[in-house]
Amino acid sequence: MTVLACRVAMWDWRIDDAYAPAILILLFPLLEWLIHVFVLHWRPRKVAGVVLDTLLARKHREHHVDPRQVPLVFIPWKALVWVIVGYNAAALIAFPRLGQALTFMVTVAVAGLVYEWTHYLIHSDYRPRSRAYKAVWRNHRLHHYKNEHYWFTVTTTASADRLLGTYPDPATVQTSPTAKNLHGVA
């Protein structure tokens, strides 16, 4: 909220403040898919005798084991701190005006809150009422309970999944024995 308060207090609004947020909103399904596939579903790797296994990947594997455990639904706070510091620093460096950077920061924060809230609702007892939310709910549930190799988007109705070939007809997909135990790794 501090970033939002700073942005509002600064006032200096220009049309180019809308470019980065508009691009982020358009790319968000793809970014969400990429993060889910390459960061959250990261397989532990041994390099020079050292096992590389990120906190986010470990927590995501735990989330697949027990998708209804509320603390595992949310981004781990230790990682979230680094994400917030990183994207804020990147925004301050990348944008020529402070107003643009602050607008981008607010947009990322709102997108993050929408993601977290949607993900929480999907894993709660709340049942979808709208057609759009039913599609989001169904796709993410398929990812957890049918096959972890498909249906990676969380907040959209499979837009990036359709684009990147991870949105098959569920009737054609076998139930995966590792949906609850990603990569067979404990």
Compact overview of the structure:
Helix content is 60%, strand content 3%. The chain has 186 residues and is mainly alpha-helical. A two-stranded antiparallel sheet has the order 1-2.
Task: Give descriptors for this structure.
186 residues; mainly alpha; 2 strands; 60% helix
Structural summary, described in words:
There is one protein chain. This protein is mainly α and 186 residues long. It has helices at residues 2-10, 19-40, 55-65, 70-73, 77-94, 98-123, 131-145, 159-164; strands at residues 45-47, 50-52. The protein has a two-stranded antiparallel ribbon with strand order 1-2. It is globular, with a radius of gyration of 18 Å.
Unreliable stretches covering 5 or more consecutive residues: none
Name the shape in a single word: globular
**What is the assembly state of the chains in this entry?**
single chain
Ends distance: 38 Å
How are the strands of the largest sheet arranged?
Answer: 1-2
Q: Strand percentage, roughly?
A: under 5%
- Helix proportion of residues, in percent? 55-70%
Report mean pLDDT, rounded to a whole number. 90
- Give the biggest sheet: 2 strands, antiparallel
| Structural class by secondary-structure content | mainly alpha
Helical segment count: 8
Rg result: 18 Å
The count of strands amounts to 2
Spell the H/E element sequence. Answer: HHEEHHHHHH
